[in-house]
Amino acid sequence: MSEDIIPVESSTMKGFVYDDETEQLTLIFTNGARYMYEGVPRELVEGFKSSESPGRFFAREIKGVYPGVRQ
After folding, report:
1. Could you tell me the pLDDT band of residue 3, with boundaries at 50, 70 and 90?
2. Distance (Å, rounded) from C-alpha 51 to C-alpha 19?
3. Rounded to an integer, what distance in angstroms lies between the CA atom of residue 62 and that of residue 29?
4. Residue 3 in contact with residue 19, Cβ under 8 Å?
5. Rounded to whole angstroms, what are the CA distances from 38 to 25, 43, 60?
6. Digit-coded pLDDT (tens) for 12-35
7. Residue 1: predicted pLDDT
8. Rg of the chain taking only CA atoms, in angstroms
């Protein structure tokens, strides 16, 4: 299965992959780390994608709110 990474304009993140069916958001950081978050609704991902600062949006709306696992 190929994954389509959606790029983001961020100094800490390269991009993300989102699975609508499972509501899994995988974030790919510039240092190579990948974290998968479960139960993230599509609306929140759209907000993340269009935010002026994806890093700040992540820290405020996703990190610590949704369970995350390093891959």
Report:
1. confident
2. 19
3. 15
4. no
5. 7, 14, 16
6. 999 999 999 999 999 999 999 999
7. 41
8. 11
Do residues 55 and 13 touch, judged by C-beta distance below 8 A? yes
Q: Which two tokens stand for residue 28?
A: 């790919």
What is the pTM for the complete model shown?
A: 0.91
Cβ pair 49, 62 in contact under 8 A? no
What is the C-alpha to C-alpha distance for residues 14 and 16, in angstroms, rounded to an integer? 7
3-state secondary structure the chain: CCCCCEECCCCCEEEEEEECCCCEEEEEECCCCEEEEECCCHHHHHHHHHCCCHHHHHHHHHECCECEEEC
> HSE-up of 44 (CA within 13 Å, CB side)?
20
